[in-house]
Amino acid sequence: MATGCAGKRPPVSSAASATIAARRAPVRLAWLPVEGFADAQVASAVNQQMEAVRMADVDQHVRAPVSMEVAQLSIECIEATPRCYGAVGKHLQADRLLWAELTRPGKRGAALKATVVLFDVARGLEMHRAERAFADAAAAVAGLPSLVEETMGAAAGGSVATTRTSVPP
After folding, report:
1. Angle at 73 between CA 58 and CA 63, to 5 degrees
2. β-strands 96-103, 28-32: how paired?
3. Where are the domains of the chain?
4. Which residue, 84, 100, 125, 138, is the most exposed by fewest CB within 10 angstroms?
């Protein structure tokens, strides 16, 4: 009889269960820096913007040691798919990923396309993707803050803070 009671736990009060329910695991966002192949100045500007992002429900904002492309190559999953992005997130021990892609549809000095993506690793889906084409590097540098803010604000329902930084021409 004594052994039967020793294994039972006392009931948890409703206040204690509310506190337990309110706790959540820390959320870690890893942002992956952009390499300057398309344009070094624009890459630097987007990296500054992503570094400045703070989301209310994220506990840790960390810079990944490599770009998305390098991260994908290192785990041998190079497709632009949720499965590969999720594998990158798990490799980086992140709950969310933030990265940007810069492409030049034409020759150097011509138009530049920027894409910013916020990805939920656990759910395996994009929280938000924003794309914009810019006439040149100067227009891209000027437009990047709003592109990053759009991505983060849409995903967070508006609860995002960024520090605007200016990049010299």
Report:
1. 25
2. parallel
3. 27-161
4. 125
